[in-house]
Amino acid sequence: KTLGPAIVWSDAVFMKHFSAAKRWELNAGALNLVTAGLPAHCAVCSENIPVSDCDGYLLVDPVGITDTEVAALEQKLAEGKGIIVVGETDNKRLMKLLGIQKTVCLETDARILVHREACERLAVSVPEDACFHKELDILDHIATDAEPLVSATDGRQERVLLSIRKTASGGKAVFARRR
User: Fold this and answer.
1) Where are the beta strands (DSSP E) in 31-127?
2) Phi-psi label, residue 35: left if phi above 0, alpha if psi -120 to 50, beta otherwise
3) Which of 95, 111, 140, 176 places its Cα 20 to 30 Å from the Cα of 62?
4) Is residue 148 within 8 Å of residue 163, measured between CB atoms?
5) Tens digit of each residue's pLDDT (9 = 90 or more) over 68-104
6) What is the pTM of this model?
């Protein structure tokens, strides 16, 4: 057993970032969460997910993740484990697993909404002074089957920044749209 989620390494994600000449900020993203108090103490290669026994799995900017890797995560979610995705993904199957969908970015200044009732019902703590950047280029997902905890709105449309999707098995899929 592990205390907290395992950080997931994926060769496919690494190669997608590498071929696009982008840095994969895996360490920085995970370190930010650990510094904030997330107890992540191990890592797992995506090919070993089916045989791992972790409480949850943390993916940072999993652009390029394969359907095979997502299938392994789906199985873990069905077993009641947790999935946390921070950042961007381009895999439709992973987005469906998270209960989100990519859409057009908001094109105007947005107001941050913290959905307090949902946070209380799900026992999620979002501090009053939480700082969420209103970067327009990240306001590009809507919740389809997930419950928004934090979103941004221009008064007409809403985009999810933090959401959770619970499964019947007790698994939780968390999406945080940050870089």
Assistant:
1) 42-45, 56-60, 82-86, 100-102, 111-114
2) alpha
3) 111
4) yes
5) 999 999 999 999 999 999 988 999 999 999 999 998 8
6) 0.86
